[in-house]
Design goal:
79 residues; alpha+beta; 2 helices
Length: 79
């Protein structure tokens, strides 16, 4: 699975990031590279340091919203 290591790293360091909620964490492999005020800043730094290598930019949230996405796009909406 892609980003498996980076997501595990995010979960491991989340307690350290509580004070930065709403900002964006840049994670490469098992390392927290930094915290940035905007998604774009974190993404740009990721490309600058790692090019096309795998890295994760994730919004720091104490409680993540669960989103449901269905693959049944041809079914009518039941709302």
């Amino acid at each position: 699975m892609a980003l498996e290591t980076e997501l595990a790293t995010y979960k491991r360091v989340l307690h350290q990031l509580r004070g930065d909620e709403g900002k964006f964490a840049l994670i490469h492999d098992q390392d927290l590279i930094g915290v940035f005020g905007t998604y774009e800043d974190a993404l740009n730094e990721g490309y600058k340091q790692f090019g096309l290598e795998v890295f994760l930019v994730k919004k720091i949230e104490a409680c993540e919203q669960v989103q449901f996405v269905s693959r049944l796009f041809d079914q009518p909406c039941h709302t």
